[in-house]
Amino acid sequence: MITKEIMDILPASIKKEIENLSFLDKLQELRIKVNKPLFLVSNNKEHMTKYICNLEDVKVILQRISSYSIYAFEDEIKQGYITIRGGHRVGICGSCVIEKNSVKTIKNVASINIRIAREVLGCSQNILPYLVKSDRVLNTIIISPPKCGKTTILRDLVKTISNGVEKLNLSGKNVSVIDERSEIGSCYRGVPQMDIGIRTDILDNCPKSEGIIMAIRSMAPQVVVCDEIGTYKDMESILAALNSGVNLITTIHGFDVEDLYKRPVFKEILDNKVFERAVVLSNRSGIATIEYIYDFTKGEKVRRDIID
């Protein structure tokens, strides 16, 4: 069933429209646009309802997610979203107010996308044995197109590595998560709403290039985790982290290992053999299909049928 946190922010008219739908248990998104039909995404399938959203619907949602003080959330709004209790993200589109060449806030909001945060506990258990060796977490990159489950798997890896796994002889590690997009821990007022483990610290809404160095200096992590690397500044921070003796797990948008070799930004970390493993995901057989695991040290794939 759709969570209470979501129902609490919806106008009565939208609640009435969706409360008896059969697919609410797998609901992923609600898309609300002024003068347009209400769209729902469930189990990666789009459903268009007959209900036409209006400006009052948008106003009610904005009031409820901001506790009737939208100005108190300007720092989040200028990022294009507000995270609510439960870790759910409410994306916002409207007229951007620009100050000093950057977005100060968003006004005249006309579109809202409510993304429902869900944990899939244990979803990393098939890949974790390939990512640890002698009580050490191997430097790993998860490669995946959008909406193929890479952040969900990353979150479960964080939790498992933080807690430790006795049957793999993996002791619990101090993990620092640099959560630039507030998706891994889904923090609400600084507190993770998702279970990311007992030894995990999180820098929420923090740029990776700064957060990685901050975490190393202040939290003494054994493992650093971040999502969606892709800039030269990210690469510099990753190299600095590895030179400090920490291990790294991160993700990128892509289709396979060959994608890495095609991008100049990754040349230095590939030449220096920074990563030891790559996990390649797709949605070919559903979200988080494991296509293969790649061993950079040997230059070969781990066969998928071994994992399955």
Helix content: 25-40%
CATH architecture of the largest domain: 3-Layer(aba) Sandwich
Number of domains: 2
Number of strands: 18
Q: Strand share of the residues?
A: 25-35%
Please write the string of helix (H) and strand (E) elements.
Answer: HHEEEHHEEEEEEHEEEEHEHEHHEEEH
Strand order, main sheet: write it out: 13-10-14-15-9-16-17-18
**Radius of gyration, whole Å:** 20 Å
Broad CATH class of the largest domain: Alpha Beta
The CATH superfamily of the largest domain is: P-loop containing nucleotide triphosphate hydrolases
Sheet with most strands: 8 strands, mixed
Q: What is the distance, rounded to the nearest whole angstrom, between the alpha carbons of the first and last residues? A: 30 Å
Secondary structure class reads alpha/beta
Mean pLDDT: 91
Low-confidence stretches: none
Summed up, the helix count is 10
Shape: globular
CATH fold description of the largest domain: Rossmann fold
Oligomer: single chain
Describe this structure in words.
- The chain folds into two domains: 4-115, Beta-Lactamase, CATH 3.30.450; 128-307, Rossmann fold (3-Layer(aba) Sandwich), CATH 3.40.50.
- It has 308 residues and is an alpha/beta fold.
- It has helices at residues 4-9, 12-18, 55-65, 74-77, 150-163, 208-219, 232-243, 257-262, 267-271, 304-307, and strands at 27-33, 37-42, 45-52, 81-83, 89-99, 102-115, 132-133, 136-137, 140-144, 175-179, 187-188, 191-192, 200-204, 223-226, 247-253, 277-282, 289-295, 300-302.
- The radius of gyration is 20 Å and the shape is globular.
- The strands form four sheets. Strands 13-10-14-15-9-16-17-18 form an eight-stranded mixed sheet, with helices on both faces. Strands 3-2-1-6-5-4 form a six-stranded antiparallel sheet. The chain has a two-stranded antiparallel sheet with strand order 7-8.
